[in-house]
Amino acid sequence: DIVMTQSPDSLAVSLGERATINCKSSQSVLYSSNNKNYLAWYQQKPGQPPKLLIYWASTREFGVPDRFSGSGSGTDFTLTISSLQAEDVAVYYCQQYYSDSRTFGQGTKLEIK
Amino acid sequence: EVQLVESGGVVVQPGGSLRLSCATSGFTFYDFAMHWVRQAPGKGLEWVSRISWNGVNTYYADSVKGRFTISRDNSKNSLYLQMNSLRAEDTALYYCAKDDGRSAGFHGHDAFDVWGQGTTVTVSS
Asked: N or C terminus of chain A with fewer C-beta within 10 Å?
């Protein structure tokens, strides 16, 4: 199975500041035939199911604010929130969907400093 | 509006069996692969199983292989998870999730764009 490792496990950022979450996969999730990375980011707020934010590593889901951005390729990826808002407090997960056995990172808890 | 509604979660004894259901609406169910994902109390997300649009291809996490069976009934727009030989470590909130259909030529490889609210399974004596 592809192992997904996120860092840090938790993060406290001031309102309006940038938040950066990293995700590393144990093997490449880049599909060479279309040059797309099969990596998604999800946001989970307390008591709610996860919500898809980013797919193909860098494409925002419809309706997701543009302060959320994804980057990276191959095995190393980053989710950036450019200006943290109070409603962004949540746990964030990366997920690879390259292999038939999907795997998630362990999650990063984002809080307000 | 696309909706996924899970049901069937209860308290069950170790070694017991349970069948979860996921009723769907608002989209063409037979066009999409579906998944089960679970979340143990206070823990992260764990993918459990996937079924192709026609039910022919199924995939399982190693932790449930041989004990759980995913199935679907396209005539009823419903997804199921038969859970046998349940263990304490199967205690979790179980979500069903829908493929987003954006595999871009890498067929069957999609993110999960819609999730249900989940149903809770507790395995305890």
From this structure: C
| Residue A97 to residue B80: CA distance in whole angstroms | 21
Instruction: Tell me how far apart the alpha carbons of residues B102 and B107 are, in angstroms, rounded to a whole number.
Output: 9
Amino acid, single-letter form, for residue A88 = D
A105 touches chain B (CB under 8 A): yes
Evaluate if residue A14 carries a pLDDT over 90: yes
Type and span of the H or E element at B97: strand B92-99
A31 — contact with chain B (CB < 8 Å)?
yes
Q: Which of B47, B105, B116 sits opposite A49 (nearest CB)?
A: B116
d(CA A106, CA A110): 13
Q: Does A92 touch chain B (CB under 8 A)?
A: no
Name which of B60, B54, B71 is nearest B19 in CA terms.
B71
Nearest to A23 by CA among A56, A52, A65, A57: A57
- B chain contacts of residue A98, beta-carbon cutoff 8 Å: 109
Upper half-sphere CA count for residue A17 (Cβ side, 13 Å): 12
> Are the CB atoms for A90 and A110 separated by under 8 Å?
yes
B37-78 pLDDT, tens digit each: 999 999 999 999 999 999 999 999 999 999 999 999 999 999
Q: What is the dihedral of CA A97, A100, A104, A105, to 10 degrees?
A: -90
Cβ neighbourhood burial of B23 (10 Å; 0-12, 13-18, 19+): middle
